[in-house]
Design a protein that fits this description.
By secondary structure, the chain is of the alpha/beta class. It has 16 helices and 24 strands. The protein has helices at 4-14, 28-38, 43-58, 67-70, 87-102, 138-157, 174-183, 229-235, 238-245, 265-273, 312-315, 338-348, 402-405, 420-437, 480-483, 496-506, and strands at residues 71-72, 79-81, 106-111, 165-169, 194-198, 201-203, 205-206, 213-215, 218-219, 221-223, 249-254, 278-284, 294-298, 301-305, 328-337, 355-359, 363-364, 370-371, 378-382, 395-400, 441-443, 466-468, 487-489, 492-494. The strands form eight sheets. Strands 2-20-12-15-11-3-4-5 form an eight-stranded mixed beta sheet. Helix 1 runs parallel beside helix 3 (43-58). The termini are far apart. The mean pLDDT is 94.
C-alpha cells in the first residue's frame, strides 16, 4: 500500500492536499481506508477532473450560440415507426429479431448504477415496488420479460436460446443488487447468464474545483454516468464475455422504465435489417417544452441534444404535416452491435466529454462537522451513453408509442410526474387495454359490467385493475386464446397458474 507521504505528495501535485487535512485525527483503520481510496489517483488526471468540473459549471447555461443553425432532424430513411408501419413490415422486423434471439446473438444490458435518492429510498431503483397487485419489483418484471422473449424465440425456431443479462452497477448498487438477486433465486434465470459488473466512480467537486470530503476518512464519490459503460466494458472484459457467447447485438436500457421491452424483437429486427451499428428507441414528444433530449443531427451527425440546449423557438418548429420538427424524444433505450462497442472502447471513449450535474453533496466542514446542504453545493461529472451516436457509421432511430413502452420512475410520490403512481398506472392501463383487445370484459365487486375504455384521458386510472404477468404475455400476444369471452373480476392478476386454469375454457 502507498505510504501517507507518497499520497500526500501526489495530492499536492493535483492541488488537492486538503483531502488529508484530518489525517492526524484518524484511527489506523480509517487511515488505511483513505489511503486505499486515494492511492490509485494519478495527479494529472485528478487535477484535470477538478478543473474541468469547475470550468464546465461556470459556463453559462442555455442554448449554445449558433446551435439552431446547425440542427437538423433525422432523415426519414433513418427513422422507423412501429405504430405507423403496415402489419407486414412489423412482422418482418419481429421475425428477424426473434431469429437473432433464437440464434443466441442478442444480449440485454441494464444501466443500474444510480441510487434511488430521488425516490426517497436508500436501495437501488430496480428493487422498488410501485404498488402492483403482484408486488413485483422492476427487477422481477424485467427478468420475466427476458424469460418470455427467450420462450417466444425458442418456440418460433424450435431451439433453446438464452438472452444474457448484463447489469452495470456502481459502488452504491453492486452489493445490494447481487444480494437481492441471490435472495430471489435470480428470478429463475440461470445465474451464469446474469453478469453484474461495476462502473467507475469520480470525486464530487466544489464550484471552485476542490474534491469534497463526505467524511474525514472518505471522499464524496459518484458514478461516472451511464456513459461510464464504455470504460466499464473494458475494465471487466464484458465484450470478451459476449464474444465467447456468440453475442453480436446488445440492447441497452435504463432500469427505471417500467414498460421497457427487453431484447424487443421488433427493435432488434429493424436495426439488423437496416444494417445499423447503433440505434435508439424514441417517443414523440408530448409538447414542445417537454424536458427530454431530442435525437436529431448536428452538422449532419446524429446525437442527442438536451432540451435545455434547444431554444423555445426551435422546440416549437413544426413539420409540414404538423408534427414537431424536433419531436423524437430520447428514452435511453439503445441498440449496439458488439463490433461498434469494441470500436468505441478501443478508439473513441477518450473523446467523450463529461457533462455537469449540480447536486447537494453532504460534506464535512473545516471543523470536521457533517453538513447536509439545503441547496446544491457540488458538481458531479457524468458521461452519457448516447454520446457515442456521433461515431456510428449507420445510425437509426425507432419510434414507439409512449403509452406502450415508456413510463420512467424517477421521483417520489410528491412529484407530479414520473413517480410510483404514474408508473403503476401506465402498466395497469396497458394490461387493461390488452385484456379488452383480447375479448375480455370486467365486472365490479357486485358483478356489474364495467365500462370498456380503450382510450383513457391522461392521468386517469382504468375502470378495472388488471395485471398480466410477463411470463404469460410479452407485449399482448397470446391473450385472445386465454381471455376471449372471459368475464374478469377486478382486481385481476393473470399469472402462469391462472393462465393454466383459463386454458380449458377455450379448448
Amino acid at each position: 500500500m502507498a505510504s501517507e507521504p507518497a499520497v500526500r505528495a501526489r495530492l499536492r501535485l493535483a492541488g488537492q492536499e486538503h483531502l488529508l487535512r484530518f489525517w492526524a485525527e484518524l484511527a489506523p483503520g480509517a487511515r488505511a481506508a483513505l489511503l486505499a481510496e486515494l492511492a490509485p489517483w494519478e495527479p494529472d488526471a485528478l487535477r484535470l477532473h477538478c478543473r474541468r468540473a469547475a470550468a464546465a459549471c461556470a459556463r453559462p447555461s442555455g442554448p449554445p450560440p449558433g446551435l439552431a443553425s446547425r440542427l437538423g432532424p433525422l432523415p426519414p430513411e433513418r427513422l422507423g415507426r412501429a405504430s405507423r408501419s403496415d402489419p407486414g413490415t412489423r412482422r418482418r422486423w419481429e421475425e428477424e429479431g426473434l431469429r437473432q434471439i433464437a440464434s443466441n446473438k442478442v444480449a440485454v444490458l441494464l444501466l443500474a448504477g444510480g441510487q434511488g435518492t430521488r425516490l426517497g429510498v436508500t436501495y437501488p431503483k430496480g428493487m422498488y415496488q410501485v404498488g402492483l397487485p403482484s408486488q413485483k419489483t422492476l427487477y422481477q418484471l424485467q427478468a420475466e420479460r427476458i424469460r418470455r422473449v427467450e420462450q417466444l424465440a425458442g418456440e418460433r425456431h424450435g431451439t433453446r436460446c438464452t438472452v444474457p443479462w448484463y447489469i452495470m452497477t456502481s459502488e452504491f448498487t453492486l452489493g445490494p443488487t447481487a444480494k437481492f438477486f441471490r435472495e430471489h433465486d435470480f428470478f429463475h434465470l440461470d445465474p451464469d447468464n446474469v453478469v453484474l459488473f461495476e462502473q467507475r466512480m469520480l470525486p464530487a467537486v466544489t464550484f471552485d474545483g476542490r474534491a469534497i470530503l463526505e467524511r474525514k476518512d472518505k471522499v464524496a464519490m459518484a458514478p461516472d454516468g451511464n456513459g461510464g459503460l464504455y470504460c466499464a466494458l473494458a475494465d471487466h472484459q464484458i465484450l470478451e464475455d459476449m464474444a465467447r457467447r456468440g453475442v453480436e447485438f446488445v440492447h441497452v436500457y435504463c432500469v427505471d422504465n417500467i414498460l421497457v421491452r427487453l431484447a424487443d424483437p421488433a427493435f432488434v429486427g429493424f436495426c439488423v435489417l437496416q444494417g445499423a451499428d447503433c440505434g435508439a428507441k424514441v417517443v414523440e414528444k408530448a409538447y414542445p417544452e417537454e424536458p427530454v433530449g431530442v435525437v436529431c443531427q448536428v452538422d449532419g451527425v446524429p446525437q442527442v441534444v438536451e432540451y435545455s440546449e434547444i431554444s423555445p423557438e426551435t422546440a416549437r418548429l413544426r413539420r409540414p404535416e404538423g408534427g414537431l420538427l424536433y419531436g423524437t424524444g430520447n428514452i435511453c433505450n439503445h441498440f449496439f452491435t458488439t463490433a461498434f462497442l469494441q470500436t468505441v472502447v478501443r478508439e473513441f471513449e477518450p473523446a467523450l466529454k463529461p457533462h455537469v450535474a449540480v447536486k447537494k453533496v453532504p460534506y464535512v466542514d473545516e471543523e470536521g462537522n457533517l453538513v447536509k446542504p439545503l441547496k446544491p453545493n457540488g458538481i458531479k461529472m457524468e458521461k452519457f451513453v448516447f454520446d457515442v451516436f456521433q461515431f456510428a457509421k449507420n445510425f437509426v432511430a425507432f419510434e414507439v408509442l409512449r403509452e406502450e413502452e415508456f413510463s420512467p420512475l424517477k421521483n417520489d410520490h410528491t412529484a407530479a410526474r414520473d413517480n410510483p403512481s404514474t408508473a403503476r398506472r401506465a402498466l395497469l392501463t396497458q394490461h387493461y387495454r390488452w385484456a379488452l383487445r383480447a375479448g375480455a370484459t370486467f365486472l365490479d365487486a357486485q358483478g356489474r359490467r364495467l365500462p370498456e375504455l380503450l382510450n383513457l384521458p391522461p392521468g386517469e386510472d382504468p375502470p378495472a385493475v388488471c395485471e398480466i404477468s410477463p411470463l404469460v404475455s410479452y407485449c399482448g400476444e397470446g391473450l385472445e386464446a386465454l381471455l376471449r369471452g372471459q368475464q374478469l373480476q377486478s382486481p385481476f392478476i393473470l399469472d402462469e397458474a391462472q393462465a393454466t386454469v383459463l386454458r380449458p375454457h377455450d379448448a
